[in-house]
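User: Hello, can you help with two protein structures?

Assistant: Certainly.
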Amino acid sequence: MPTAVVYAATVLIWGSSWIAVYFQLPVVPVVVSIFYRFVLAVGLLLPGLYLLKMLQPTGARDHGFFLLQGVCLFSLNFICFYNATLYMPSGIVSVVFSLATIVNAINNRLIWKERIPVSIALGGVLGVAGLGLIFSGQLAQQWNAGYFNGLALALAGTYLFSLGNMISARNSRKGIKPLTASAYSMVYGTLLLVLILVFTRQPLVWDPAPRYWIALLYLAVFGTIVAFSAYLTLVARLGPSRAAYATVLFPVIALLLSSVFEGYRWQASAFAGLLLVMFGNVIVMGQLPKLLKAIFTKS
């Protein structure tokens, strides 16, 4: 599939998935909702890959990395993001998540020893300044410690997501395809969620509202199986830093949906902050024409 199509699918699905997360709150506890999501996703993906004979043979060492990827990409990061949505509009959480481009670039340096260009520093300053503008507008309306809790959770989820990207890059370098890595990683992530549920003695409750199970199906099939497979394909083709550029576009879709469904009100500071975050990410990615060339030439 052409990289441009993969990119578009990733942006559109993940950009809209934040509002689906909002529709799952707050009747059902966060960990329970995430557990349902990944049980359904694993139940569809793993047997499907097995029947289609698309599962690659893997070794014990590979499964160790699948376990780490499951912890970072398919369990703890979602616990952070879902809880962050309890404190602030889902569109704002997506803005924080868009800083993954910066975090990926830094982790590339720390883990893969790739040089950090000057653009990282400038982009990082703009990104932090943009977040400051967005949150200053919220706090000016109502001083609420919950916004700081939400910010901390969203940042933690973003960093876990970035670590998962680094692990995914390792798997790709070993010749493991994204679908195989995702399937096994989701299994380990789901098992971790089971342990959390058992340890906390959390009962499995259900929200009978139609919007809950519609959101669940959307998040499991599109937001998890399709979007993660597409994104990890981008990581394999373009590398973690360039793949993360897709997150720059998420907030546009997410904030528009927040305006419709969550009553999010745009302020001048929020609009300016969003532009700064996006512009900072563009700078981090380097020259945009080179990125576009890579997207439309790789398949």
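That covers the first. Now for the second protein you mentioned:
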Amino acid sequence: MICVETIGKIRRGHRVNKLSVSEIARRLSASRDTIAKYLDSEITKPQYKTRAKRAPVMGAWVVKEGG
């Protein structure tokens, strides 16, 4: 999981320290694709896909309390 601080380290390493994508990935233990994604975009917070909630398997058989 990438936090805002890590995104800052990625950009600082590339823009200020002139490190390659491979070197940044090695130092931060992240994939080169992830590093490239955050360098190419102006995203400041990581965005994650949300999954749709699943219905309970036994949903139809659950007896409601107080009913």
